[in-house]
Amino acid sequence: MNSEAALALLQNTYGYDAFRGQQSLAIESALNGHDSLILMPTGGGKSLCYQIPAQLREGTGIVISPLIALMQDQVTALRELGVSAAYLNSSQTLDEQKAITRQFAAGELQMLYIAPERLLKPKTLAYLSSQPISLIAVDEAHCVSQWGHDFRQDYLGLSVLKEHFPQAPLMALTATADQRTQQEIEQRLNLQSPVRFNASFDRPNIRYHVSVRQDARKQLIKFLAQHKNEAGIVYCLSRKKVESTAEWLVSRGVNALPYHAGLPASLRETHQQRFLREDDVVMVATIAFGMGIDKPDVRFVFHMDLPKSLEAYYQETGRAGRDGAASEAHMVYGLQDVVRLNQMLTESPMSEQQKQVERHKLNALLGWCEITHCRRQGLLNYFEEEAPTFCGNCDICLSPPKTREATTEAQMFLSAVYRTGQRFGTAHIVDVLRGLDTEKVKQHGHEQLSTYGIGKHLSAAHWQSIARQLIVQGYLSNDFERFGALTLTENSRALLRSEKTFHYREQLAEPQQRKKSTSRNGVSEADRALWDALRDCRKQLANEHDLAPYMIFHDATLMQMMEERPRDIRAMGFIHGVGASKLDKYGETFLEVIAKFADQP
Question: What are the DSSP calls for 320-331, one per residue?
Fold first, then answer.
């Protein structure tokens, strides 16, 4: 086995000229029989790292994947490339499953996708062990770690893989894992002297922006106005909010669909297929939607609520811009998100140690929301990766926040927390400072306090921002067992005595809109007709073959066709993403479309 064979397969089957980043090294490692741990960002090309050696080594490659949708999409895409691949999961009839096992036994499959719970059945392990296995790839490997952000109990049983398949190289792949999680993946999967391949976590094509929640729906609809006729995902924390938001967007003329685990499986499948196959669907979803989504042209991800951690945020925003084109990740948040997430943690059955880890992750995310330097640098530093201080593609670099000395205001807030007995949440403290005549204020006699009304010259939003930043800077903490009651920390004493000063970051600005060029989506008006014709052709072929359009060709491939306008089948073969199988199936059809515009400049 050698790198030349891998490169030839990449060019002839997949239609790509060269490997990216560490792909070739990871493939060579597998070809040589070594175990590996591969960390690559979403859209970084992880699947090629196991698909190519699985085709070049003797036997069938086993791919362990947690989601049915992801298996089905990848197998469909592989078959379009002429690769013999199949999957086994609960969506199939017994006869379909038997047909797949017969193919496997006959040595006719290059790759077999399977869920961990099915793989671990004694009967499955027995028949898989009866045939040569080229390699085993564990996708979404962070699911094996109890310290990761998406732990799954079924993954723990994968420790037996080495016992049953000692000769097969084992590849663990994920987009997010800190050092602790990486170590646990290696231990739990019993990887033998694994080679680590850590690609950069940076997704330079994604613009990051964070706003304080004011009117979330108004903020969302303003954002969507900049992304008309584009596909995107809107994440919400609760199922109820998913449904109400989707319904509201539809009433505003947006092609929106809801998705969460509580919907009937058939409806979830219908909505997911529409998202994959239509160009302008906005999916409003909980985190139940996303891991199995391989759609390359998602142009934005909008968070209506704070995620649980920076790992979760990175994973979710990474679903935008897998094709490398400009995309946006926008989040609105408020302190109530933190209280709600911590209440969920308190009520969860996980161990106290695990809860502490999750709280630490949540605090890190909150701190990242309030930083005053490059947001991309802060994100990459969290994953222990060095980054420049200016990326030029985040809200802070594009519109640096203003800060000012606000020690007196901080002291007012801390004093109000102290004088009310450290028993109340932010909303009540703000009411006291602003001198509001509420039932709660009267019930506790807080209108008699010296701090009552001393902050009435400032808005409620301003005081809420002061509270957030006091928490982030370590002067206040939330007592989550008492519904988010604010308490003073040791650090607050020095601030109250004016031994320290407090610098306040002004309210987060609204996003600087992406500058509009004279072209739309990189397509000039002169090329618009050809571009639309190529997309219409792709859509028609996708419908005829019951495929998602991107499974025919990605936008980047159509873009190159539009720019180079190949005139014969040989020239079409040089277009990026046009492999031998697709050239044979679709080459002439697209050449006919291009020929109609041959006389145009």
Answer: S-TTSS-EEEEE
